[in-house]
Amino acid sequence: SSLQDTIPLHWRNQSMFGVGVEVPVAEAFAIRGGYSYATDPVPSSTLTPMTAAILQNTLGTGVGYSHGHYRFDLAYQVQLPATQHVGQSELLAGEYNNSQVHVMVQSLTLTTRIRF
To answer: Is the pTM of this model over 0.85?
Structure first.
């Protein structure tokens, strides 16, 4: 009458470090850049193709513009490519034995703020 499903992934805690800088280039403009590093919390033995948590190195850059009550920010971020191999999977079905995951993420973001 009930189903109890648990998947022991054995993930570890993740630590993260980041550093960035913002430089005003004119009264209304600023440029930004940054880097972050995160430890990998996913052991190879329970890795799946949907696990993007293996990304460790991220670079970002952006520009901001202010005019009156408005602020516009455009940012680009790339999470550098990461590859992790699975030998013998600890997942019950073993469907990811002898496989690998390769992932990279890029994003472009535009935000707008109105100060009241």
So the answer is: no
- Provide the pLDDT confidence category of residue 68 given band limits of 50, 70 and 90: very high
Q: Give the model confidence (pLDDT) of 7-40 as tens digits.
A: 778 888 989 999 999 999 999 999 999 999 999 8
Contact between residue 86 and residue 100 where contact means Cβ atoms under 8 Å apart: yes
Determine contact, residues 73/64, Cβ cutoff 8 Å. Answer: yes
Please tell me the distance from the alpha carbon of residue 111 to that of residue 39, in angstroms, as a whole number. 29
- Nearest residue to 16 via CA among 38, 1, 42, 35: 38
Q: Round to whole Å and give the CA distance between 74 and 49.
A: 31
- Cβ neighbourhood burial of 62 (10 Å; 0-12, 13-18, 19+): buried
Residue 70's φ and ψ, nearest 5 degrees, are -105, 145
Q: Which residues are CB-contacts of 68 (< 8 A; sequence separation ≥ 6)?
A: none
